[in-house]
From TrEMBL:
InterPro entries: Ribosomal_Su5_D2-typ_SF, UDP-acyl_GlcNac_deAcase, UDP-acyl_GlcNac_deAcase_C, UDP-acyl_N-AcGlcN_deAcase_N. Catalyzes the hydrolysis of UDP-3-O-myristoyl-N-acetylglucosamine to form UDP-3-O-myristoylglucosamine and acetate, the committed step in lipid A biosynthesis. Zn(2+) binds at H92, H251, D255. GO terms for molecular function: metal ion binding; UDP-3-O-acyl-N-acetylglucosamine deacetylase activity. GO terms for cellular component: membrane. This is UDP-3-O-acyl-N-acetylglucosamine deacetylase. Its EC number is 3.5.1.108. It comes from Psychrobacter nivimaris. Belongs to the LpxC family.
Length: 320
């Protein structure tokens, strides 16, 4: 179990600069769909690179930028396709990257999907903390929402509104015995600390009947109770139960944080969503970027306090 140093310092009085990782680091996990081992590597990158993916199993693979415009398929996960090359299931990793405020990073992966790990963002958080961070000589850029934008699909909707900080509100509506009606709404006031403690460990979930159908189509072959909360017609099947009473909706916020990060910068705004998913989250990002009157790109220097609390680099330490 990883423990994090508790810290309430705010980034005030220090310029908010971009960060990358200190050293390259690698891990091997399992592909959710293939069930096969997948190697994952993180490498430091220069300022203004952003988050870039590369396929280590394809010789001469073109870098794939983490851009909402490259999302081609939102079946169960967010999948980027660029020049015919695919990197799937990017949302939990992007959530960890957003949560820790990493601006520049190369992610190399040996298959068409990011490994599922334990179905949450926590293993990626641990890996990034292990690599360590270094501050770079350029101001961190944010995208500030200046005009509300809302998208809808049937009864589902998602919106981003102007807000001093980053807040995510999510409501789900599952009429199912395993979903307690009292725990279908959650809110995250974004900071690195809140992300790590309240969101990063929330796991993905799936219904047994859907998983069986996917397996018949050679999908979800790596899916198990090791990397998802599995629900049958009435119950949660995982012996250990839930990590939070509202773990399902917390995971939906974790997904949204990752999906929204494909906007290209950390967000200053308030996200509200009802029954949203990868497709609608992606549509929202595209809608915002479609009109320059919806946003502006901002930085914070020594004299202006950043409304988002990222833990200072020195406090991002793993204990034990
Ligand atoms: Zn997810």
């Amino acid at each position: 179990m990883v423990h994090y140093v508790n810290c309430n310092k705010i980034c005030e009085k220090t310029a908010m600069n971009q960060r990358t990782i200190k050293t390259a680091i690698a891990v091997t996990g399992t592909g959710l769909h293939s069930g096969q081992p997948v190697d994952l590597e993180f490498h430091p990158q220069p300022v203004d690179t952003g988050i870039v993916f590369e396929r280590s199993d394809i010789v001469g693979s073109e870098p794939i930028p983490a851009s909402a415009f490259l999302v081609q398929d939102t079946m169960m996960s967010s999948n980027l396709v660029f020049g015919g090359t695919r990197v799937g299931t990017v949302e939990h990793l992007l959530s960890a990257i957003a949560g820790l405020g990493v601006d520049n990073l190369l992610v190399r992966v040996s298959a068409s999907e990011i490994p599922i790990m334990d179905g949450s963002a926590a293993p990626f958080v641990a890996l990034l903390l292990d690599a360590g961070f270094c501050e770079q000589e350029a101001a961190k850029k944010f995208i500030k929402i200046i005009r509300p934008v809302r998208v809808k699909l049937e009864d589902k909707w998602a919106e981003l509104r102007p807000y001093e900080g980053y807040e995510l509100n999510f409501e789900i509506d599952f009429d199912h015995p395993a979903f307690d009606k009292n725990f279908q709404h959650a809110q995250l006031q974004f900071s690195t600390q809140n992300f790590i403690e309240q969101l990063s460990t929330a796991r993905t979930f799936g219904f047994l009947r859907d998983i069986e159908a996917l397996r018949q189509n050679n999908l979800a072959l790596g899916g198990s109770m090791e990397n998802a909360i599995v629900i049958d017609d009435a119950n949660i099947l995982n012996a250990e139960g839930l990590r939070f009473n509202d773990e399902f909706v917390r995971h939906k916020i974790l997904d949204a944080l990752g999906d929204l990060h494909l906007i290209g910068y950390p967000i200053l705004g308030r996200f509200n969503a009802y029954k949203s998913g990868h497709a609608l989250n992606n549509l929202l990002v595209r809608e915002i970027l479609s009109d320059e009157d919806n946003f502006e790109i901002v930085t914070f220097d020594d004299n202006v306090t950043c409304p988002i609390e990222y833990l200072p680099l020195s406090d991002l330490v793993i204990e034990g």
